[in-house]
Design a protein that fits this description.
alpha/beta; six-stranded parallel β-sheet; two-stranded parallel sheet; 22 helices; globular
Length: 557
Amino acid sequence: MSAQLDALGLPMSGVRVVEASAGTGKTFTIATLYLRLVLEKALKPEQIVVATFTRAATAELSSRLRERLRLASQLLAQADPATPRDDDGGDVAVTRAAIAQALTPEGIDPGTLQQRARDAERAMDTAVIGTLHGFCNRVSSEFGFETGRTLASPELLEDLRGLQNEIVDDFWRAGSADADTARVLARTWGSPRALARQVADPRWRGRDIVIDENAPETMPLLHEQRGVALAWLETLRNSIAGWNDTSIGEADIELAACFTNKSARASRMRGLRAMHNWAISSMPSWPPPGVVDKAAESFSPGAMQALKTCPRLPQGPTFDAMIDLGKVFAALHALDAGAGALVLREARAFLECELPARLRGLGKTGHDQAVDDLARALDDTERGAHATAAIRKRWPVALVDEFQDTDTQQYTILDRIYRDVDNAHRGCLVMIGDPKQAIYRFRGGDIDAYLAARKSASSILTLDTNFRSSSQLVAAFNALYARAGEVLSSDPDHPIFYQKVNPSDRRDADPYRVNGNLCDQPLQFHYWDADDVPVDAPSRTKLALEDCANHIVELLS
């Protein structure tokens, strides 16, 4: 049975999960579920919450839902609207199937269903389609008495950046009064705006800024350790400044004996000379020039042992100094990163404390504050149960798209609304998302929230056919994960897997071509086989991006 028809069999009560990879018809399925609610349950758009996470996605969803209702109305005006036709496309076919299913109960006729679809299409301007943050604010506004919001509802401030910048400016001024903090601020961010962009990043919400367990916990202690490391650096620099042509020449001979690859050998010879030039110059010891930092890293035992063209490590006082220099550079980098993390944590704590207070003083609220306020209200032992019952009566069904981006607090709000005091599910909550994207914490994914939601579901619908990609590309990814392993999380408590998807033939009629030639291997890997690949991840990333961009230009040309 196809994924579209499976959507017709999903019970529209309790908690349900729809798992959808890219290209498997997620929006198509949401439109099918929405149509069923209108035809089968006789619900109006104002009774159905459709939540997603961007305004762009909201506009697309609204358009698709309206189109599906209009299509249903048109089909129901025909004779025998539930009977499939040979020329039916995907939207028409599943809409006819939904009509047939809605006609099953006795007493329901096409005219009644057409009226429901037509009325719903006309009422789409009253539909509750928006972001989950916006929904939380609307709940608090419409149910102010139940949720404890003041009679004068605060104005929703769509853009908090101005107020956030003001708060970070205050933090910057206060921090600059301390010499150590002022140095970290200037070196790490350079300006209050740069700090504000990082500290106000919404991905920090609900998460701790983790400090390395080996790093000092306070700025004075960190400053003390940094002084010790800088003194060691000066000693090493003075030693390197004492190199002469003879010692550098002997080092060249040793490098020639240790490296069989000319490029790897030459780059390290250049690194020695750059190191000596820096040591005898008037440049500051820290931070060192990039070429010096890179040279020290290239002489680390780990970096050299990783090369097939380095059968043994170079020996001698010159290389001992390089190894020690690499260690002190690494220590100072770690201390500077630790200092930055300490300041960032303090700045984030200051922002989280000041922002709600200043918003209250202005009679305004933000999207995150609306979520916080509603979560506190529903958690209240006295008013929580009454509030959730009232909210659920107003909106008996919620369809939450992109659920993998929902955090624990947002999921808890939804769970409280659609579960009563006896822990039984009430109404209908359908959560639609891609579990694979829940592992991407850097973009807001919360794997724990997703797994909790999945565990609570009465049934799970998996959309397993990809309609966007060619059969060859789908088969290639299936083969890749079959060989490499389907587990996507290194944490055994997070069982997220790659699930094999079935290809459709929708894209096969117009296959991808390069210069007119059929691309029969759409999944390709670029392997960088070179001994002189940078050791540090940022440099590797930069080169990989450049290579990717060059390949795109080549294809477009």
